[in-house]
Amino acid sequence: MPRPADVPRPSNSLHRPLLLIPFLALALVLSALVALPAPTARAAEALTDPIPERPAASGIGLTVEEFASFPKTDPPPGPVTDPRLVRHARINYLSELPDGSGRMAVPDLNGKLYLVEDGKPHVYLDIAATFAPAFFASRGLGQGFGFVTFDPGFKKNGRFYTVHTEAATATTAQPDMRQATNTNFHGIITEWTADDPAADTFSGTRRELLRIGFTGQIHGIQQIDFNPTAQPDDKDYGLLYVAVGDGGQGARNTEPQNLSRPHGKILRIDPRGSDSANGKYGIPAANPFTGTPGALGEIYAYGMRDPHRFSWDPAGSHRMYLGHIGEHAIESVYEVRAGDNLGWSEREGAFVFDKTATDPCARILPLPEDDARYGYTYPVAAYDHDPPAGWNCTSDVGRAIVGGFVYRGQSMPELQGAYIFGDLVDGRLLYAESAKLRRGSGDLAPLYELMVYDESGKRVTMQDLAGDDRVDLRFGRDAEGELYLLSKANGKIWKVTGTRTFASCDTGDTKVADVMGAENWAPVTPAKWRFPGSEVILAEAGAQRPGPRRPFEYAVLTAGPRFGPVRIEGEVRLDTPVEVTNRDVIIVFGHQSDTKFNYAHLSTDNTIYPHNGIFVVNDADRKRIEDQWNGRTGAPPAITDTAWHTVRVVHCPGTGEIAVYVDGSNRPLMTAVDTTLTSGRVGFGSFDNIGRLRELKVTGTPIAE
């Protein structure tokens, strides 16, 4: 339940209104906190891999085409010492103006507001020049001209709103709200009114709505927006949502829990009202804390570190989703409702955050048994990000989440209802099915990774498109619900035009089946094999042979032709007891010789290099080629018991795409792109275990011997 605002909670033991505690009692409580065991005493509880489940392969690729390219800009006033700010253009968002013109608005953190028509950007308003010399964008990843949003009635009233930052030393203006310590930067929300809403460049008036002071140079005002699903007769119509970060201070204090300050909160205000403290906007009566003594009535939800991007699902109950950037490890998606407390900085995601831990890998702890009594709202989806170099934590994905949108457009029916988002640093694209984003269930929605195909049909990464390892990914959406991908690295925007299924080539229609007889197989060591008629059985484990490192024992199917494009289907079983670790069987394809072939390794282990992946042997030691291996772990184990499992392998030599499916899933367990071997025969085997194959069907395009 929401708590009264006053003093932030310094510990989980203080989840009660501190104004009700006499001063002496409070001093005793704080003394007791100082006497708690040192952080090292709690290190045994620390979670070094808090979310072990990694995003799975989806087998879906987004097809994109370049939409617009922006001119190079530099952060004013300079100089810039942080290389992360040296981008081609720091474009931050894309939205369509709500006037039916089809024009798209794009803010550049370095100070210019662009409108894009027919793929060509032009400057509509120079924010940096308007507010110079106070305008500041030279330090802090979110500093500068951060966001723009347009009033739902812009076509008639010409109103829109911007966020920019100023250096406190360069202005005489005073913040309406500030942090407890020194104010070094201001985040300002400005209302603009265009004389002619249809004009190509701005001419009109402006007024300041709200100015918030920040101690630090990060986590300022990240996004402002109107709920586009609200209708004119809804109470939410025309209300402005404001995502305010913790100023980079929440890891050291409890301001995000303090309802008397705006930091670490989402605010909701009425730009047409006047009952705020500064008289420049209104406070909606339906806001959750308007009746709470000492609380800011503007607060809609709280307990946040860096509420980076939020959006509403255009369909269904129009749920609001927030992409929340974590401090230590947890990147989260929340469904946000009025009055929610996301828990920062006592919680990071659905974990205890230990501010006192000196070991960087001991800051994430399990929830206490009585956690329900605190009333925190936890993520509906999350991943743990890769730790910095030198840490011994084990995490899995990217470095920082960028929130996206629930897709309700027309060009991607396979992703209808998917919440599509990504990692802003490495640019990987992810999604979760919105039906699985279940608030309060205690279960995180499964995450799936999306691929990208360029206009030529070539599979690429966002890093390829951006021309940089740091993509600085952002999303946009047009009035039709179609998606756009933005990169600061090269200042380009791509429109998502559709989807493509990975390894979806025409494999041909030549079939080979009913081939379980011994006469159809060529084993490495015939004495180790049995062919009872309905199965192919590797009855005795193989032994390592001279030459390149490769599976010890396998049999090649000699019946039928050698295949180029091929689809292999069958059922496999591992006969070695799984209590013995690292057990495996393999599916061979593209076999040309004993030292030149591909194989899919199906194992009970996914943590060591030789297991559970896709490999190529090319007259050299086997090489791991699948997308899922990150240097520490691969795809989830393919086989963990001695039951029969269906397996399907598809190889498309034209593109090099290889997909491995297990147990009837329509999503591949493993994917790879490799053009080393373009044809060959298929087979079955293992490294040093025993197992069997049945119901084999091979369908492909024959290649002349």
UniProtKB/TrEMBL annotation:
Identify the residues that the record assigns to the Glucose/Sorbosone dehydrogenase domain, covering every copy: 95-434
Gene3D superfamilies to which the protein is assigned, alphabetical: Exo-inulinase, domain 1 (2.60.120.560), TolB, C-terminal domain (2.120.10.30)
Which interval of the chain is the signal sequence?
none
Question: Sorted alphabetically, which InterPro entries does this protein's record hold?
Answer: 6-blade_b-propeller_TolB-like, Glc/Sorbosone_DH, Quinoprot_gluc/sorb_DH_b-prop
- From the record, give the transmembrane residue ranges: none
Indicate what this protein is called per its UniProt record. PQQ-dependent sugar dehydrogenase
